[in-house]
Amino acid sequence: MPLATVTMFRELLGGASHLADARLQSVLNFAEVKVKNDGISDTHELFAQMQMYYAASILERSGEIDYVTISRQVGDVSTSYLTNQYGGFFNLYVKELRNIIGKSGFIV
């Protein structure tokens, strides 16, 4: 899967019209490096999703976005949930990272 785009990221965030494209691209760029450093290849099918989760966690922690309802589709299966039920985007990122790289109990 290719890298996440600003359009994809806005869709995940439910529009986020109050944030400039440049700001969204900036956090996506930072998240790209973070996800690669955490051991996920940019050719992995969930790389863009992980990139967006980490980027969204940056915006959450800085107060630029509130918790939002998100959905994820893999193949024919679609799941929707509120991020605050899962402790925010960072916790979603860590949960998925553990699933992808097959480790538990590690520090990110």
| Low-confidence runs of at least 5 consecutive residues | none
Radius of gyration: 13 Å
Main β sheet profile:
2 strands, antiparallel
Average pLDDT confidence is 83
Helix-and-strand structural type: mainly alpha
Shape: globular
β-sheet strand percentage: 5-15%
- The count of DSSP E runs of length 2 or more, i.e. the number of strands, is 2
- Number of discrete helical segments: 4
Helix proportion range: 40-55%
Major beta sheet, strand line-up: 1-2
Helix and strand element order: HHHEEH
- Oligomeric state of the chains in view: single chain
State the end-to-end CA separation: 23 Å
Secondary structure elements and their pairing?
Layout lengths: L5 H7 L8 H17 L9 H15 L7 E6 L2 E6 L6 H13 L7
Spell out the key features of this protein:
globular; 4 helices; 48% helix
Can you offer a commentary on this structure?
This protein has 108 residues and is mainly alpha-helical. 48% of the residues lie in helices and 11% in strands. The protein has 4 helices and 2 strands. A two-stranded antiparallel sheet has the order 1-2. Strand 1 and strand 2 form a beta hairpin. The longest helix is centred in the N-terminal third of the chain and has 17 residues.
